[in-house]
Fold these 2 entries.
Entry 1:
Amino acid sequence: MNYARFLTAVSAARKPSAIRMLTELQQRSPPSMISLAGGAPNPNTFPFQACSIQVKNGDTLTFDETMMKRALQYSASSGIPELLTWMKNLQKNLHNPPTANYSAEMGQMDMCVTTGSQEGLCKVFEMLVNPGDNVLLDAPTYSGTLAALQPLGCNLINVPSDQHGMIPSGLKEVLSSWDPADVHKPHSTVPRVLYTIPNGGNPTGASMTTQRKREVYELAREYDLLIIEDDPYYFLQFDKPWAPTFLSMDVDGRIIRTDSFSKILSSGLRIGFVTGPKPLVDRVVLHIQASTMHTSTFTQLMVSQLLHGWGQEGFLNHIDGVIEFYRTQRDAMLSSADKWLKDVAEWHAPAAGMFLWIKLKGIADTQQLIMEKALEKEVLLVPGGVFMINSSDPCPYVRAAFSLSTPQQIDEAFKRLSALIKEAL
Ligand SMILES: Cc1ncc(COP(=O)(O)O)c(CNc2cc3ccccc3n(O)c2=O)c1O
């Protein structure tokens, strides 16, 4: 793969920070090294002594004085080694990426820690997307992605999708506007980037079938596209076996995957990961060096201690408990939807994630209904327009999350929504 063709001028211009390189050199050096280099503060001046964190399974995570000093100090921009190593082993175990054994220039699988997958997405978009670029995605899509992409001045092209995700024939139709032979010509307008949420899509709850992924991947090969696989709901797939990921089929090194611990360990700790070809992950790390420097060392160490205590088996056992919680929540929402909404709305049962995408019958656009009438009735949902490429386009959908409310609250909310819709009709 020629990765240079995908980089914006800004990303291509990024150079390693000399000071950050020294910090990382120092951290790899033996204790006999005396460094007068780093402008790091002396941890003996920090007011924090130690801490211990109770884990629900009875374990305790302990930061003694030495560990606390490390936790409160600067660390490597790509992420602390022990967390990165743990995640790389998990990715290899779950996805067996063909790129795991490639050379760096061939696109060897690499990773970095980001402050939530939101930071990863934002930095990946800023690495790849120039003003005027044609970018492919299946709308409706995550509003945070639109917020990161649209200010870049790109042209978002919608690829048709349904409850089973992006439709390959729709992608082929969109791409037929260009000749694959033009892909590598200077000033080519052929899209270079395709973004999708393959499991438990936000807002639609849609999950891509394996066959569709294979067909989309083959089209990406034909037109030399990078695929951004934004997959924070991968671990919230209710049924096994979990769907093979784009990363697992990436023979070319054209997948950039963002993972998140938000839906399974904590959203407030802000831990995400970018997995992709080393030449591209390196660019994201250079951007981290110049922006946040790194994700909180304390947070990374806390999560790393938890994961090393659990091991992959313990981690996946925890995930099984999370899945059962959201399955119960989903089933409660589907039951209440059947009870209150079946005459006035339609929906598909999600196989993953935490969202139900509800089409209100006879209502062209839900914006006003939700933002005014629903608030009066004291029920809050998200009007579908916020997930569309053009948010002013009328949208008859609303997004309902089944993550936080109790089944009883969900039932009452849908009872209120039902009354609201009937009044509006
Ligand atoms: C597809 C997709 N990709 C990336 C992210 C970012 O997750 P991160 O790893 O935590 O950074 C998300 C998070 N989605 C949401 C977040 C959120 C936060 C506060 C309040 C509301 C929120 N609503 O509604 C959301 O959908 C997502 O759905």
Entry 2:
Amino acid sequence: MLVEMGQSHLFRDWPDPGVDDQEKLAFFDQIKLLNESYPGGLASYIKTARELLEDSRLGKNPFDGFTPSVPTGEQLTFGDDSFINFEETGIKEARKAAFVLVAGGLGERLGYNGIKLALPRETTTGKCFLQHYIESILALQEASCGYVEVMCPRSSSGGCRTEIPLVIMTSDDTHARTLQVLKSNAYFGMASTQVILLKQEKVACLADNDARLALDPKNKYRIQTKPHGHGDVHALLYSSGLLKKWRDEGLRWVLFFQDTNGLLFNAVPAALGVSATKQYHVNSLAVPRKAKEAIGGITKLTHADGRTMVINVEYNQLDPLLRASGYSDGDVNCETGYSPFPGNINQLILELDSYIEELSKTGGSIKEFVNPKYKDASKSAFKSSTRLECMMQDYPKTLPPTARVGFTVMDTWLAYAPVKNNPEDAAKVPKGNPYHSATSGEMAVYRANSLILKKAGIHIDEPVKDVFNGQEVEVWPRVTWLPKWGLSFAEVKKKVGANCFVSQPSTLVINGRNIHLETLSLNGALIISSVDSAEVRVEGAIQNKGWTLEKVDYKDASFPEEIRIRGFRINKVEQLEATYDQPGSFTLKPQ
Ligand SMILES: O=c1ccn([C@@H]2O[C@H](COP(=O)(O)OP(=O)(O)O[C@H]3OC[C@@H](O)[C@H](O)[C@H]3O)[C@@H](O)[C@H]2O)c(=O)[nH]1
Ligand SMILES: [Mg+2]
């Protein structure tokens, strides 16, 4: 096959039989793996690569024949009646959902040495993204089962058996460390069988326009490989057999999400509610997008022949597409101060039946692209080897016109704060655009929680502006809570009274389910923990020196990397710590 596919250069320098035989056999083991892990095998990979490389060489526009325009979608406003209704519907549906986390990426832009899932989402509690995700899914599971028990009380005797599956797609770069974090933390409270790891394989690198495979510079008996992109998740899910198993178990939805968005679960219940209400086959979550922000734009594409689709146009392709379509300024903000195209946050909700139907046709393969960096304008040679890539959000590209494809826009403060950029690059982001750094990711958690409490009626001080690692951010009170404390806005409202106050320098950690803030006035730090069977009312004024933020320079190697990249550490000067580990009713009333 390799010879037929024009790959004889791979063997050209091989010594005679008897020399390096083990290495030669290992070469064929690798070929076998590359062949098996690609839909249609290596021959198909090479054939597609030739076509895409030729298109790239000719400078063909991948959107040739399509005209972009701004699509209309569902716009949600946090906290209004429709939002609250969507959240309630979403929580009911959650027990019919499976979650899929794509976490095979290296995070090259962030440059962190560990896996991104193990990074703290915020450093007040120090809980990592993975723990927060798992606790959020468990909270959804319990809340969703609560509805079942109310609807059919007989099932309550044996408790709710639903376990919402969590699939994590890993790669050789992340697999072992992801498994290790899960195992050493008892899967953060999930059953170990509830979490399924699927490892994506890398794909062969291409050395030239003829799609000759590139040899590993360090080993002439190995082919160089690189990641194929998060689009692999569809083929992996399909070949794993999980989708059909889920369908047989009565599941209806598959929710895809990415490694470092600390706000995502603020948006999940309502977004799922939109999918269920509108019966969307595909629902993409979006936020208002700043021009040139490194997030894809959701775009309506209309072909000359009348076909239309609503699809993500990746951030590096939006500007050229707009320029080629008569928008001479390209990717710019409109009068609202935002790009007219909603920004894709790559949280997709797919309806399971139609997903299986589509994958039965495609096997899960996703439209690929190639992005070679040429040596010069002749486009005859590459600076370094390239490979085919694919993106999970390109899934709708092959759907029939009858498919119900929609999107849901929410506020950025509520739904999106990824950690993708290292401090140096973040500080260079155009003014007014989000930093997407560890600093902004953590500050966004405090801001969102503060704003949610504020909307629920608590008086919260205005934030102060401060600069960490060269990035100016708003610093709100450091408020965090367990997902099961405030899974939805309705839930938060039930637990806070109108006469509460939290000052700007304060820290409030809510570590329990049934904690009611009745008349709390906080100026300092309060860490309150309780078991589920304890009901705690918090009343009165709490005043102490609290927890302060101290600046840390990202170049200061005396601090651990996860602290340096955010530019501050928390100095725990003084706090009131209250723990309720017995069932019963309690009141915390310091004065
Ligand atoms: O091969 C890969 C590459 C990436 N990934 C995962 O995919 C997720 C996204 O990766 P990146 O953070 O590199 O993605 P990007 O920032 O380039 O863009 C992505 O997020 C923002 C959206 O607006 C873009 O449309 C989307 O492509 C991460 O969770 C990463 O771990 C894989 O699982 N495998
Ligand atoms: Mg990337």
